[in-house]
Design goal:
Elements (H helix, E strand, L loop, with lengths): L2 H14 L4 H12 L9 H13 L20 H15 L8 H12 L9 H19 L3
Helix pairs in contact: 1-3, 2-3, 4-6
Length: 140
């Protein structure tokens, strides 16, 4: 694990253990002799994380997105999926999965799922996909 990953995990542990700032700083000093994780080496961060685990912190595995959500079957959503798969077949897109489409839609609109897009947003997504296709297929 990198230093930054360990620091993030320690901050998650701080939150999960509900440590106030003074208690947290005292724990850092007690375990490593340093008042800030930024000043610590990777072995010191490992030691600190071990101490937090002894106090009850458990690392939770990331849960995968619920793939049982039914797909939106509206004509516009079917068109978006058709364009996405067509672009994947043409090699324009590397990941043809529904999850990859959802991530792209979220980046473009801020909305987590096709089924929550309004008709204006779906129209914009369709046009962006068409423009992307034209841009990539344009002869040079």
């Amino acid at each position: 694990m990198t230093k930054n990953q360990l620091i993030k995990l320690i901050h998650i542990a701080k939150r999960d253990l509900q440590l106030d700032d003074n208690t947290y700083r005292q724990l850092l000093i007690t375990v490593t002799g340093k008042a800030s994780t930024r000043d610590m080496t990777v072995p010191q961060l490992d030691t600190l994380l071990g101490a937090m685990k002894k106090r009850g912190f458990r690392i939770k595995t990331a849960k995968k997105a619920n793939s049982t959500r039914p797909l939106n079957d509206s004509p516009q959503s079917r068109k978006i999926r058709a364009l996405w798969l067509e672009m994947a077949d043409a090699g324009i897109i590397r990941d043809r999965s529904e999850a990859a489409l959802a991530r792209w839609v979220k980046r473009e609109t801020g909305v987590d799922s096709l089924q929550w897009l309004n008709s204006e947003q779906t129209s914009v997504i369709i046009e962006k996909l068409k423009q992307w296709q034209r841009r990539v297929r344009k002869p040079e």
